[in-house]
Each structure stands twice: as structure tokens, then as C-alpha cells.
Amino acid sequence: MKKRLVATHRRRTALVGVGALTAGLLLTSPQSASAANLIKNPGFETAGSDDMPYCWKKSGWGDNDFTFETVADAHSGSKAMKVTLTRRVDGDRKALITESAECAPVVTPGKQYDLGLWYKSTTPDTSVTLFRHDATAGWQYWTDLKTLEMAAGWTEATVRTPEVPAGTDRIAWGVSVYGTGSVTTDDYTMDQVADPVPDPVCTGTAEECANGRWDVLPTQNPVRSMHSVVLNNGKVLLIAGSGNSEQMFEAGTFTSAVYDPENGTYKQIPTPKDMFCAGHVQLQDGRVLVMSGNKGYPSADGTIGYQGYKDSYIFDPVTETYGKTNDMNDGHWYPSATVLGNGDVISFGGLKEDSTGSVTAELWSDAEQKWLELWKVNQTWSYWGLYPSMILMQDGRLFYSGSHVFGNNIPGTGSAIYDYGANTVTQIPGLQKKDERDQSASVLLPPAQDQKVLTIGGGNIDSNPDANRLTDVIDLKQPNPSYVAGPPLPQGTVDLGNGKVPQTGNQGKMYVSAVLLPDGKVLETGGALHNRADPVYESSLYDPATGTFDPVAADPEERGYHSSAFLLPDGRVMATGDNPGNGSWNHDVSIYTPPYLLKGERPAITSVIDTEWTYGDTQRITVDRPIAKAELIRPAAVTHSSDPNQRFVDLPLSVDGNNIDLNVTSNPNLAPPGWYMLFAVDANGVPSVAKWVHLQGPQALSATDSSAHVHDFADNLKGKVTGPGKKRTSQKVGPTVSGCDRHYGSVNVCVPTDFPPAVKATTKSRCDWLKKNDYGRLKVNGRDDPLRLDPNRDQIACGKGDVTRR
């Protein structure tokens, strides 16, 4: 089992279908080559130097034997280009447009181009590969767009590029051959796509069309859910467990509900154990794996902390029931959960049954349908903290973004690349204020092929400073990637207990929700300024193409601790929950209608030929009118600002009227096996309602055996590298890990161990703050009074005698 994992995770698999097809251009059938072909010497008829035609050059890399030939077997004219590999260990060979001002076609940033060629091929290991010239950085690899199927006779291939990135003035492209065999090509074409369609007609108010609209649903969420999973039937699993209520825990009342967006109804689901603060992830067959949860609440005096159990369950969307799996090796309260390219699931961190931190990596085997025994799983014995954000990279490694829950970050730089096969951890630099990224949000930006991660906001429940406005972006395609500072988070209003006031200075928010949208932007919403207090009302859209935030309408509901926001199949966003420190719960549900749904009629996917997809396939859909792009979005499985499996995978297009051929990535690390929402998006950024498609796993694993060509990404890491440490049982974690002083009130009440900066360290100031935040009567547990809330020692905090004495 271990050998299979190493081969799967460490091999650099093919990157097919890379690129961001952002909205903005009308899709039409490719123009004829005679209309505006941008390729010089497209049929190889004019001779050049180095035994190559004019404006074409030999290109490629790696250990292989190859030949380049100009042959008479042409599609038209008298010449064609044949590239042959007779032996290959790695790498590729390709006839490429010469990267020069004389030969490389001029392009316009923001535009898209239709590429076409005729070919014959004796190998399935091919790809249309693009390079771009950046005015500052020079020539660099851009993307692979399409795999060419084997063809004995002349066959036409067409594909549309992503929007040309900013700063790009020319591109070069050709066909890569990365398996033994030959490809003969001829008659290349490149045409600029038509200009955008006219501006849409607004179907809402001017404000709504610019900033979207929030609606609070008339029916409340019946459970105190803090876990939200969008199922492959379009419904939403909402998991509460005890809902952070000690009373429900003691009564054994554990709850879940299934919400149906079609009719707005909830169905409560029998829940076998307290899944409060568990981990969860969708398996490749659409079932939901739920790992660990709450074995016990802290003791009244705070000497014992939260405890995680070893149990694991699977929720079946068909029967809407939970079933038991085998136990994990450790308890994991607040674990990570990342699905891998072979369908396995890896999990780190959280608290064990004795309240210490788990240093055990856990691996769920998709093949064996169980958690593997400890000795079968590579271990570094590292403690990654609580809900560490572990994002799968395109080569099978994991990027720890630095987003986590509760207090300080891990030692070192605060972000790292973890390599399961090599069993190493390499520190990655650049994350700002790494110990103030508690309950920040991190997302793999659209498209997944670009390998860029955005981290947003955060705070620290221990020191309880004002939450920050920091954002950081990292490009994992760089050989030695490092975070760079992004634009500051927009500011909104904050309720400090006396009504909403504008945020000032560097005030930002923690408890951030970040949602990938089908138009390629990211909605960030919700949050609070301090530990379970002072809600912030602000939402904005981040555009990866421009690297900017655009403020939009804010959710009218408080969305702090234990809140979630996630994409629905109809393109709207649902937001639930809020659990402030006084122990109350917000059962209201908000729905965000983004501006793209107020631009008039939506495109529709009228047919999907096949809902069972395999890696490297070409899949045909039919649409009712022209579209500009299509993508797969993995459905949400989110809690505590964390959904490391959220991803947006581009599907490059080949267009024939309303028939669209979608080119599916051949790399399962870009799109791990499972169910996805398929969206088609028109030139105005308006998405269709999603269709559900299932991306297969086993075929993908066999496809990687060819060790398809790739470009080395994040492969020149200069950070500190550590291997497995000494085997140990756990990491010591203080019982106040949740930032709550348990000397006061019930266990589901969180009196902060450190009050916000504006609160003076006096009994009156602290008691005034607790009163403004509706804490009510607080019993003192035991004899200790560390926050000096009970000077008269009557065992009631902030009573009349306490406030008048000091």
C-alpha cells in the first residue's frame, strides 16, 4: 500500500486543461483559416534553418530519443511536420512556433483565441501546449489545453485558449509528444474570438445588479449546524452533533438535518454520536466520510480540555443515514480532511481522547474502504494544530496554507509543503503575521490549474487583538514559491455592542467564509473582530485575474464562530450559523444572489452526453446559446472557515455551434475523483444551473503510468526541510485552547481569556463588556477568579456587589 501511495502522489502527472477561461467573450464557431489566421507558415511550406520550417523550432526536454522530420504526407500542400519518440524515460518533444517577435503571434490581454490544426497520431500521449511572452519576465510556460486522441487519418483538432493574462504580448504553441510514437501535424490556425456580446439588461435594482442581494429565508435551520456539505443530489447535509451545547451532550441529543434548496424544507436525521467539530470530506462515490468529533467537554474548572474520539462514520445521501466505519488510530477533535488524487483521504491534527494534540497522520484507503493501520501510514510525528488547511497540489503534495483554528500557528514560517512520499515538511516563507491567522480562510483560486492560493484575514483567540485585513497570495507553480502580500481586505461595519460603526485603522475580521463562484471570482463574507464577539458586516468579490477586491452587499445576519457559507448548484450562496461567546445560536439562514444572476436570462446545459467522466476525456455537452467557458466545481464540505477541497477546474472548449466539447484534465490531483458541479458560463459571466457529473478514479491511476510530461512546479524549495521526527504519542495542548476561561458560566459559554484591546483590565470594564454582549448571570466555578469578576466572592460573576466594589 505504501509503495502505491508514493508512486501516485509523487509522480508529476500530466497537466491537461490548464488555464482560466474567465467570462467576457462571446463563443462562436471558429472562423475559417483564411479569415484571420495569425500563424506564419502554418503549413510548413517555407523552409527555414536547422532543418526546420520558417518560424518553427525544435523544442522539448528530458531523457528521450526523438526525430523531427518535414514529410510529404501532408493534409494540404506538400509538407507536414512529424515528431517521433522511440525511447522515453521522461520529458517531451514538440515542434513549437519560434519564440521571437518575427514569428510568435501578437495577442491582446483579456482576449481569447481559437486554435486549430490537422494531425495524425500513433500515441495517446500528446497535448496542445502554450507558452506566453511576459513583457517583464520574458518567455514562460503558460498551459496545456487538449489531449489529441490517436488517429490513423487526418483529423481536425480545435480548442479555445483562456483569456490572455495581463502583461502578455505574444504566445507560441505546438503539439507536445510525451509517449513513444509519432504525431504528424499540418495547417495550424489561430484566430481571435469575436468581441463580447452587448451589455446585459439588469433584472433587479441598480444596487442589486452591482452588488448582489441577500435574503433571509422564512424558515430557520432547525439544528445548531456548524458543518455544511453539499451532496451530489443538490441537497445540503447540516451537521450539529451537540451543537456546542453541554446540555444536549449530556442528554445524548445529537442532530443533523438535510436541507432541500428546491422546496426550502429540512429533514432531521438521527445522528449516532456527537459530531460537533468533526472532520468531513466527500468520497469519490458521493458519500460523506465524517471523522472524529467531541468525546467530552472541558471540566467546569477548566483543568480538562475538549476531547476527540476515534469513531468514524459515513453518511449515505441516498438513504440519508449514517453508518459506522472502523476507528481511526487516534482521536481527532478539529482534524483536517483532504481527498487525494487516488480517492484516498489524509487527515492531520486535532485533539486526542486525553485532550492532547494528535501527531498521527491518518489515511483512509478508497480501495479498502477503511482507515489504514498506523504502521501502513507514513508519519513525521508533526503536530499541525486544529483544522489545518491542507490543500492538494497538482503533483500530489500538500500545501499547508497557514490557516488554522485557535491561537498561534505552527512553529517556523507558518506555511509548508508536505510530501507524503518523501515524508518531509518544507517551510514556505512570506505569510504575514503567521500567528494572527486563526480562523482565516484559504482557497485554491480559480482555476485549480493555476495553482495559486489566497489566504484571507484572521486573528488570535489567545491574545485577542483586532482581527486583521491581511491577504496573502502564493503561486505554487513557481520553482521556489513564497507568499506575497495581497490587497487589504475591504472594511465594513462592526457591532461593538452599541450598534454598527465603520471599521477603522487595520480592523479586519476572523471567522471568514470564502466561496468559489462559477464566474471565476471568490466571495468572502461573514466574520467578527474578536474572539466570538463583535460581528463584522462586510462581503466582497475577489477577482484572481486582477488581484482586487470589490465590495458587495453584506449579509445582514451575524456570521462569526461556527458559521459557514457555500455554493449551491443554482449559483447562489447559502450562509448559516453564528455562535457568540454568550452561548446563543443564530438559526437564521441567508441566501446571496450574486450580480451575475441579475443580468438577464441564464444559459442552459440542455444535454450532457455522459455523466460518467474519466481523466483525459473529451466530453460533449449541448447548450441553448453561446457560452464563454465551462468548469467543474467540487461541492462544499466546510466548517470553521475551512474547506481545503474546494476547487474550480477549467474545461477548455472545442466549439461547434451549440455543441461544446469539453477537455477534461488528465491529472487526478487537479480534480480528485468524485462528483462535481458542471457550470457553463456565458460571455457576461452568467452561469447555468449546474449539472452533476462523476469523475472516475481508477482510470486516472492507470493513466499516470505513462508518466506524462509536466513542467516542474514548486520543485526548487529553499525553505528548511525536516523529515520524520522521533516517534511520540502526542503534543501537549493547554485546556484553554479554545480561548475561553472555564471558571465562569456553563461550558458552552466562552468568557474570553483575554478581552478585546478596548476593554480595560478592571472588573467594571470587563463586566460592562460582558453585559453588552448578553452573557447574563455567570456562576463562578470553583474558588479561583483569574479575571477578577467576583470581588465579593459570592460565586456570581459581575453581580452588583462586584461592580460597586471596583
UniProtKB/TrEMBL annotation:
Domain (Glyoxal oxidase N-terminal): residue spans on this chain: 256-582
Region (Disordered): 717-737
Lineage: superkingdom: Bacteria
Gene3D superfamilies noted in UniProt: Galactose oxidase/kelch, beta-propeller (2.130.10.80), Galactose-binding domain-like (2.60.120.260), Immunoglobulins (2.60.40.10)
Ranges of residues in domain Galactose oxidase-like Early set: 602-694
CDD domains in UniProt: E_set_GO_C
Stretch forming the signal peptide: 1-35
Keywords assigned: Signal
Gene Ontology biological process terms in this record: carbohydrate metabolic process
Matching PANTHER family: LOW QUALITY PROTEIN: ALDEHYDE OXIDASE GLOX-LIKE (PTHR32208:SF21), SECRETED PROTEIN-RELATED (PTHR32208)
Protein name: DUF1929 domain-containing protein
